[in-house]
Amino acid sequence: MSPIEATATLFGLINVTLVVRRSMWNYPFALAMVSLYAWIFFREKLYSDALLQLFFFVVNLYGWWNWARARADTGEVRVENLDNVARLCWLAGVAVAALAWGGLMNRYTDAAFPWWDGSIAMASVAAQILQSRRNWESWLLWIAVDIAAVPLFAVKGLWLTAGLYIVFLALSVWGLIQWTKAKA
């Protein structure tokens, strides 16, 4: 456990709590957290997760803009729904992306757990995009990501991060409940 991991963990807790509450203040904490985790994961040879943090940085900038626009239109951050066809397409896309990314990481890097890490990364990409678009289905993916990530981080000895993802799991369940109540 390092001071950087402890700081990233604290920022993560604040970030997700604010996302559940649909607060725009989640974004500064998100940007700080993903910057720190990019360094941590690269050091641990979890390359998919390290690259994922760079993606999160960009998508969080988009989410900040999108949430601000939605709030300006209605006075609050609205929650949106996907139809069933869109849900199936997103699920199929995650599966294909996980297979492709895991294969690339397995073949071309010395990544630790390339398939496991790659699958978590691709599901996280989809969840973050859906969350930035204010889709409540993002929470279903975050729950799956959290369940898969806890043992991966424990195996790598990232105990604070594993603990953070246990808390993220609880927050994701809370987020699903809150956003289900708020959805359009």
Sheet bearing the most strands, described?
none
What general form does the structure show? globular
Q: What is the number of helical segments per DSSP (H or I, 4+ residues)?
A: 7
N-end to C-end Cα span: 42 Å
* Count of extended strands: 0
Work out the helicity level.
over 70%
Integer tally of domains: 1
Mean pLDDT, rounded to whole units? 92
The Cα radius of gyration reads 16 Å
Q: In percent terms, what proportion of residues is strand?
A: under 5%
State the order of secondary-structure elements, H for helix, E for strand. Answer: HHHHHHH
SSE class: mainly alpha
Unreliable spans: none
Function: Required for nicotinamide riboside transport across the inner membrane.
Transmembrane segments: 25-42, 49-65, 85-104, 162-180
Protein name: Nicotinamide riboside transporter PnuC
Membrane topology: Multi-pass membrane protein
